[in-house]
Every structure is written in structure tokens, then in C-alpha cells.
Amino acid sequence: MKTPSPNTLIVFAWLVDRYVPAGKLRMSGRLAEFWYGDHFLQNGYALNPIRLPLTRDVFTAEGLQGDLGVLGDALPDSWGRYLIKRQYNQSLSDLQILTLDASQQRMGGLFFSSELDDTPVFDAHNQEWMIQFSHWLNDNSKDFPERMEYGSSAGGAKPKCLAQIDGQEWIAKFQPGNEPLNKPAIERGTLELAKACGISVPENRLINLPDNKQALLIKRFDRAKMKPLHYMSGQTLCGVLFNDAGQVINDTRSYLVLADTLSKISADPQTDRVDLFRRIVFNILVNNHDDHVKNHGVIRSLNGQWRLSPAFDLVAGEGGSRDLAMTIGPEGNKATLDNLLQSLDSFGLTRLEAINEITTMVTSIQNWKQLFEKSGVTINTINEIAWAIQESIDVSGL
Ligand SMILES: Nc1ncnc2c1ncn2[C@@H]1O[C@H](COP(=O)(O)OP(=O)(O)OP(=O)(O)O)[C@@H](O)[C@H]1O
Ligand SMILES: [Mg+2]
User: Counting CB atoms within 10 angstroms of each CB, which of 17, 61, 155, 329 has the fewest?
Assistant: First the structure.
């Protein structure tokens, strides 16, 4: 399949009730340039209030990162790129990839096209399509599901698709082929446990697939009343930069930097910083060490307020490392409550408040088995993940 190879795209953003041109993105080699259009300058909003203010400047970056990271957030990660490679059988530029998911399903509130009068195709995958997709995941020799590019804009590395079910938009996550554990069920249990710990999480449910596996449906938080909401990742908030080879060249990945940006842009910084604090405590208590910088983000509501997004990709026992993925205190990524308790200024908490938070969460964690079971996780899966949950951690000495 041939796809045009543009060097300039129109960046559309959702405004009130439709996508409107927000500006132009031009790339030559690694040099990326973006500037807002006149109309959007008057009626629109800053796509990133910290790094991309609504001015007449031409913003530049080496690739879709740094000041232009919010545009890079609209690109898929390894899973979406895998789907695209399977479908197109050639390597595509970032600009080509941005135009591929031209459906109303595409992630976030941006849309990209080389045509000024373009608009996303009004089409979405349904439950039937999702089941066909899961068959294909289990057996690649089966027919390639049609319109695979719709939803390919979703980030992350694990197998997933987007679908509209019961009039709502969902992300569906599947058990990877080489994965013996029922990860969708573990993620469901972990999300429900996080909710019990006072962390905001999206509605989610497990569904049985015909092949004896399960998928996790997670309600999309980048939609409100079926309208797209604009999203920005933690990677963009922290200003992480990569070189050509994809290596990080300035390690700014930090919960403390995230907390600081929440102070600057959130419409309710104190609630959001406490939620972030709870996520760190939670990740320590359930050994989720895959809490990397793209597993956090902020969302812009239809009335223009930025808030920390609900938590996502919380999976007990996930990640190869013993440390958290980002700095939480003077001892860097070390996954201890002591390390975290030395950075309380960043979260606007006194030591007493922080210890009260932790104590309440530890009490909720002690009921984890009942909660996992109530959430539909089997006893086998509960036993397989039991090592990860610190249910008897002693907080009396904090
Ligand atoms: N409920 C949601 N609503 C909207 N966007 C979401 C939601 N959950 C996840 N996302 C977005 O989709 C991306 C991929 O989701 P997720 O992190 O769950 O996938 P993953 O493949 O498990 O990721 P990883 O590669 O970190 O393991 C996230 O980075 C986030 O931008
Ligand atoms: Mg993720």
C-alpha cells in the first residue's frame, strides 16, 4: 500500500463541536517546526500552556519532542507501530504515521492531515471487530482485520485496540501471546485496588473472549460526551529529550517534576498532587515498577481546564526493575516510603498528612484478595500475583 509522504501537515484540534485547523507542522529531516494559524490564535487554546503558548512564534524542536512533545504524544509507540508495519510493509515517517489513524477513534483531541478541509472518518470498531482482532492476535495467519489503522494511534507496547461498545469508547487490552499470566485480569484487579486506595481510575471491566482468554475494557478518559479531549503525556510535561538512536539525553523523568508542572497547569493542583502522591505509594505497595513517564498524563476538559488524567496501566508486579521508573526523592528511583517522605513539599503535604494517607492506603491494600475476587479475578491468578502485594508492610515506624 502506498501512502503519500508529506513534509507539512495541518494540525487540527477539537474546538467546541468540531476539529478546526490549529496550526501547521513542517518537518525537514529531524527539524520540526510548528506555528499556530491566525484563527486559532484568536479563538483556540495553547496546545501546551507551558511550552507552546498561543503566540505568533515558530516553535522548533529536534523531532516531535521538547516544545513539540504534545504533537509527538499523538504518535503510537511500539504496538501501534507494529500494526502499521504489518499493514503497510514499509517504514513510514512520523508525519505519515500521524495521518494514518484518520478515524473518529484516534487518541486525544488532535487530528492530522495534509488537506485543509479534511475531517476524521466517522467510523469506529465494534465488539464484533474486537473479537476478530483477538482471533488475529492469537493466530497471525488468520485474515488481517479490515481498517486496522483505526486506533493505531494508541500508545504503549502491549496488544490493544480501540472499540465503541454500548455507546461508549473503550481501550481493549489483551493478553500478549507469549505471556502465561492473565495480565488483563491482573490489571483489572490492580485498577480496582487503586480505586479503593483513593486514586482516580477509569471504569473498566473484563470480558471473556471465545478463545478462553480475557480482555480488559477500559473506558477512555480522552472522551467526554463522545467528544475528543486533548491529552499531554508525562514525557512532554517533564521535557524528556531523545537522540536519533532513541536514547534519553536529559534525564528529567521525575515524579517531582510532574508534581511541579501540576502546580503550574492543573485547575486543582492540590487534589492532583495528592493523587500523584497516592499513585507513588500504591506503586511501591503493589510492586508496579512500570510506572514510566508515559504512564502519566494530563487531560484538558471541554471547558478548558487541565487536570491529571485518571491513572492507567497499573499492573501489580509489572516491570523488571526493583526500583520505580522515576525519581521520587533524594535516593532517586528507590522504591521506599522513606525516600518519598523526604519530598513532601513537592506534593504539598505535611509529614502527618502523608503518613495518614499511607496508613489509610495500607488498610485498603490488606483487603486486596477479596477485592480482586470481587472484580472477577480467578483464585489461580490471585495466587500467581500474591508475591507482589505488600499486604503486611509495617508503617508504625514511619
Ligand atoms: N483509559 C484511557 N483513556 C484514554 N487514554 C488512555 C487510557 N488508558 C491508556 N491511555 C493512553 O494509551 C496509552 C497506552 O495505554 P497503556 O499504557 O495502558 O498501554 P500499555 O501497552 O500497557 O503501555 P506500556 O507500554 O507502558 O506497558 C497510554 O500511554 C495513554 O496515553
Ligand atoms: Mg503504558
Answer: 17
β-pair type (110-113, 160-165)? unpaired
Provide long-range contacts, Cβ within 8 A and 24+ apart, for 347-351.
Answer: 347/259, 347/273, 347/274, 347/276, 347/277, 348/263, 348/269, 348/270, 348/273, 348/274, 349/273, 349/274, 349/277
Give the residue ranges of DSSP H helices in 76-226. Answer: 78-88, 94-100, 127-138, 183-196
- Residue bearing the CA closest to ligand 1, atom 10: 312
**What does the pLDDT average to over 319-328?**
94
Q: Which residues lie closer than 8 Å to 58 by C-beta, 6 or more apart?
A: 33, 34, 35
Residues 6+ apart with CB under 8 A from 274: 347, 348, 349, 357
Asked whether 157 lines ligand 1 (CB < 6 A), one says: yes
Model confidence at 156, pLDDT cuts 50, 70, 90, reads very high
**Element (DSSP H or E) covering residue 351:** helix 351-365
Task: Tally the residues of the chain.
Answer: 398
For residue 154, the ligand 1 atom closest to its alpha carbon is 12
Contacts of 298 (CB under 8 A, 6+ apart): 231, 232, 237, 261, 262, 265, 266, 306, 307, 308, 309
Mean pLDDT of 51-76: 98
Closest C-alpha among 193, 356, 395 to residue 344: 356
Q: How far apart are CA 273 and CA 260, in angstroms?
A: 9
Q: Read off the pLDDT of residues 367-377 as tens digits, 9 standing for 90 and up.
A: 999 999 999 99
Half-sphere exposure of 9 (CA within 13 A, CB side): 24
Rounded to whole angstroms, the Cα distance separating 126 from 365 reads 36
Q: 3-state class of 175 per DSSP?
A: coil
Spatial CB neighbours of 6, under 8 Å, sequence gap ≥ 6 = 95, 96, 99, 114
Q: What is the CA(175)–ligand 2 centre distance, in A? A: 14
**Residue of 81, 195, 295 to mutate, ligand 1, most atoms within 8 A of C-beta:** 295
Q: CA-CA distance, 252 to 275, in Å (whole number)?
A: 21
